[in-house]
Amino acid sequence: MVKDDAFTWNVWYLTLGFVAVYCLIIYLYRTGRLGINLATFLLLGLCAVEAAANMTMTGISTTSRDQYVENNDATRAVVAYVEDDRDFYRFEKTDRKAKDDGAWMNFHTVSLFSSMAHEDISTLFTKLGCEASTNAYCINGSTPLVDALFDIKYSIYTGYNEDPHAKAICESGDIRLYQNEYCLPLGFMIPRGFENNWALEAGNPILVHNQLSSVMGTDRLLTQADGFTEGDAYTFTVPVDGRYYAYSDNTRTSEIKVTIGDTEKTFEKVDRGYLMELGWLDKNTIVYLEAVDDTATMVHAYKFDYDALGDIVGQLGARPMQVNTYDDTHIYSGVDVTEDGKLATTIPYDPGWTVRVDGQTVPAAKFLDRFLAVELTAGHHDLEFTYIPEGLKLGVRISAGALLILFMIFVITLIVDGHRRRVAESGGGTETEPDGDEVRCAETAA
Predict the structure, then answer these.
(1) Residues 156 and 92: beta-carbon distance below 8 Å
(2) pLDDT at 133
(3) Residue bearing the bigger pLDDT, 261 or 400
(4) How many CA atoms lie within 13 A of 155 on its CB side?
(5) What integer is the mean pLDDT of 13-30?
(6) How far apart are the C-alpha atoms of 148 and 189, rounded to whole Å?
(7) At 355, is the secondary structure helix, strand, or coil?
(8) Which of 22, 335, 345, 405 could form a disulfide with 187 if both were Cys (CB 3.0 to 4.6 A apart)?
(9) For residue 344, which of 322, 366, 362 has the smallest C-alpha distance?
């Protein structure tokens, strides 16, 4: 959602200026001081200037085709390397060209850019510390917890991943594939009270992560590292080797520059509330964070606890759903349930899903009010998930009816036109003999 503080004073004045010029041109045309051709030319020119100004301030730079498709073949190669892994899993590409790289290069992914993006999913991503907006969500800011929850088994890196909890699988050119140590299946049984007790409205991603730790009875997933603010920069020294993140408490800060040794990186759009991934850092490394846009640097750093994640994954993954086969619209799977409960999946909920348990259609439930789930009794169950877009069957019937009506109109038109031609040929096309008066008048005139 766009907030008022996203518009600086110069945006308002520039907008008012454009409106004033538009009104002036229209006024001069209406009063006859400008001809239609000149007024049209001025309006089109002003539109071009406005579009150029908007692109300069809000657009993105262009790139060549060679740069845009660079490493695409290498990405496809590392994805193909694990195609024998027949289980369902997702990839994430940390250095993406776009949020739809998965659709472009044909691998399962979490990130999405679409006008049909689920608003509830975008909201959840924001709560978990990932970047999201009205029509997109992605893994920028994702922690190993997010990767585990969303069945992200493999990560695609441009370069090296220094995290020892990621296993190197293969490489092609500059692209390297890593397998994450912790990953939940597509579906898993959740403990009673899990959804009610996990407070997603805790306030910020740090609290949401640690609130889940409390629900599962583990140590905190994110622990704050001691640091201090001096001038415009926040500084902390890494107390122990580990994976670190930073979070800005200032919602007016949109850009933060991070300096780690000789390396600098600028995180943009941090006002969206996502976690800044600092990566795997060695003990005694000094890290500087500074707001770029003249706002107060209100930042804290946190270390991620893999041991706590292992406990959580161990509990949630104790009763996994085993995917047997799947395609774009069907998933066939099985699960062993020790006690009555809810099977949760990370498939976005949609009314078009039909769930069958042991061959019987059952009502689909929701997990976290966002994902597809189903209530199950104790025992072994064979599951079938089938997707048909809501309204598709009705749309097909309406389209078929419309085509039938159109065909009937076409046939009727042919019949009517044929009848008119026959009438014209039989009655209107023969000449009539002149009557006697007309002949006598002609003779007299002669």
Answers:
(1) yes
(2) 84
(3) 400
(4) 28
(5) 92
(6) 15
(7) strand
(8) 345
(9) 366
Is the pTM value of this prediction over 0.90?
Answer: no
Contact (Cβ atoms closer than 8 angstroms) between residue 148 and residue 140: no
Asked if residues 389 and 395 have their Cβ atoms less than 8 Å apart, the reply is no
Coil, helix or strand for 261?
Answer: coil
CA dihedral (332, 333, 337, 342) positive or negative = negative
Q: For residue 195, report the phi and psi dihedrals to the nearest 5 degrees.
A: -65, -40
Structure tokens, 164: 């020892």
Give me 295's structure tokens.
Answer: 């706002």
Mean pLDDT of 408-427: 90
Q: How many residues does the chain have?
A: 446
Q: What is the mean pLDDT of residues 51-70?
A: 73
Amino acid at 399: S
More confident residue, 97 or 193: 193
Please name every residue paired with 259 in a beta bridge, in sequence order, or none if there are none: 264, 288
327 burial level (CB within 10 Å; 0-12, 13-18, 19+): exposed
Torsion of CA 163, 87, 131, 368, to 10 degrees: -120
Residue 434: predicted pLDDT: 54
Strand order in the sheet with 330-337: 321-326, 330-337, 379-387, 353-357, 360-362
* Rounded Cα distance, 59 and 269, in Å: 14
In the predicted model, what is the mean pLDDT of residues 376-382? 97
> Mean pLDDT across the stretch 313-323?
96
Where are the alpha helices (H) located in 252-320, listed in sequence order?
A: 306-316
Residue with tokens 């041991």: 307
Q: What is the pLDDT of residue 2?
A: 42
Structure tokens that stand for 241 in this block? 């080797």
Residue 242 and residue 297 in contact, taking contact as beta carbons nearer than 8 Å: no
CA 306 to chain centre: 27
The answer to whether the CB of 139 falls within 8 A of the CB of 92 is yes
Amino acid at 214: S
* Rounded distance between C-alpha atoms, residue 103 and residue 339, angstroms: 38
Question: Is residue 1 pLDDT above 80, yes or no?
Answer: no
Joined together, the tokens standing for residue 39 give: 């007024």
- What count of other Cβ atoms lies within 10 Å of the Cβ of residue 184? 22
How do residues 344-360 score in pLDDT, each as one tens digit?
A: 999 999 999 999 999 99
